[in-house]
UniProtKB/TrEMBL annotation:
Keyword Metal-binding: no
UniProt family annotation: Belongs to the DNA mismatch repair MutL/HexB family.
Role of this protein: This protein is involved in the repair of mismatches in DNA. It is required for dam-dependent methyl-directed DNA mismatch repair. May act as a 'molecular matchmaker', a protein that promotes the formation of a stable complex between two or more DNA-binding proteins in an ATP-dependent manner without itself being part of a final effector complex.
Name of the protein in its database record: DNA mismatch repair protein MutL
Keyword check for Zinc-finger: no
Signal peptide bounds: none
Record's keyword terms, sorted: DNA damage, DNA repair, Endonuclease, Hydrolase, Nuclease
Origin organism lineage: Bacteria, Pseudomonadati, Bacteroidota, Flavobacteriia, Flavobacteriales
Source organism (scientific name): Patiriisocius hiemis
GO MF terms held by the record: endonuclease activity
Domain DNA mismatch repair protein S5 residues, every copy: 209-327
Length: 339
């Protein structure tokens, strides 16, 4: 009898991993923007063409990479962000799996240009379907530019499955919002087919919300702030009269990472009880800061769901704080829903 098990070649393993990490152009945008943040960039530019289907390019002025690191960054499980398993429970970076670039390079044409401050000459690498096509020295400013072209070029089924340009663009803008709102001090630009979509200078939290959602947002915001031993909460809720049928403007950030939490969303809704009609959803931009050791981020491939040690305490605190803030702004007369 012959044995039948074999190890998959790297490019096949990468393509399988890519299926989890990269669902659509917006997933690439998220990974590239987060890498730029992790590289301590203060300016980040996102350029897309055809809703990201032909080009997604992110340029940052962060720490850049050495020539060796530039090449290694495309290997699976290659990361500068963690070294040991215990680091998983004390994360201060957006990334840690070392999978994004390997996955993206397995299913697209990728050009990387990068240079560190201390290097005179940078590195340019072209990679297609996990294969390095060229690598050369190049003159570039400090920082990194990664261009991802022809996403899913080698997976026609995935490519055909992409939605219309407006829908894919919407997803990209959602990811852009999440990262830009989490990091208001970082300047961002976004261009689509050559047109500026966003130009955001370094701002504070309120300015960033207004920069994204327009001047009208300013008068809708009710500040929320409360610090306890287990969690610091800051940010804003929208006044009850701006509650909407859709859940568009609902943002939780934990340690500057956008997350989804049905449980914490319920805490906010509970604080609005009696102030908004049933079926409408309150808007909020809430920033939670907790000890990184008290959360587990490694429960979901896109890291948008996390586990808190002190979930119940955070729920209670959030609800009480928001109630208090709404009351303080005395914009919370009990509505007569029969009128
Ligand atoms: P992760 O972010 O989980 O470490 P990635 O595949 O996204 O994995 O990136 C691999 C590595 O490449 C990172 O750990 C980092 O060292 C490097 N890297 C990626 N993008 C950048 C960037 N924009 N600037 C500097 N280094 C980067
Ligand atoms: Mg990453």
């Amino acid at each position: 009898m012959t044995d039948i098990i074999q190890l998959l070649p790297d490019h096949v393993a990468n393509q399988i991993a890519a299926g989890e990490v990269v669902q659509r152009p917006a997933s690439v945008v998220k990974e590239l923007l987060e890498n730029a943040i992790d590289a301590n960039a203060s300016e980040i530019t996102l350029v897309i063409k055809d809703a990201g289907k032909t080009l997604i390019q992110v340029t940052d002025n962060g720490i850049g990479m050495s020539t060796t690191d530039a090449r290694l960054s495309f290997e699976r499980h290659a990361t500068s962000k963690i070294k040991a398993a215990e680091d998983l429970f004390n994360l201060n970076t957006k990334g840690f799996r070392g999978e994004a670039l390997a996955s993206i390079a397995a299913i697209a044409h990728v050009d990387l240009k990068t240079k560190r401050e201390q290097d005179e000459i940078g590195t340019k690498i072209e990679i297609e379907g996990s294969t390095v096509v060229s690598q050369e020295a190049t003159v570039v400013p400090t920082g990194t530019t990664i261009a991802v072209k022809n996403l899913f070029y080698n997976i026609p089924a995935r490519r055909n499955f992409l939605k219309s340009n407006p829908v894919e663009t919407r997803h990209i803008i959602d990811e852009f919002h999440r990262v830009a709102l989490a990091h208001p001090s970082v300047a961002f630009k976004m261009l689509h087919n050559g047109d500026a979509v966003f130009t955001l200078p370094s701002q504070n939290y309120r300015q960033r919300i207004v920069g994204i959602f327009g001047n009208k947002a300013n008068e809708k915001l009710v500040p929320v702030e409360e610090f306890t031993e287990i969690v610091k909460v800051s940010g804003f809720v929208l006044k009850p009269e701006f509650a909407r049928k859709s859940r568009g403007e609902q943002f939780f950030f934990v340690n500057n990472r956008f997350i989804k939490s049905g449980y914490l969303n319920h805490a906010v809704s509970a604080a609005f009880e009696g102030l908004i009609k049933e079926g409408l959803h309150p808007g909020y931009f809430l920033y939670l800061e907790v000890n990184p050791q008290s959360i587990d981020i490694n429960i979901h491939p896109t890291k948008t769901e996390i586990k808190f040690d002190d979930e119940h305490a955070i729920y209670a605190m959030l609800r009480a704080t928001i109630k208090h803030s709404l009351g303080q702004f005395s914009i919370a007369p009990v509505l007569d829903f029969n009128k």
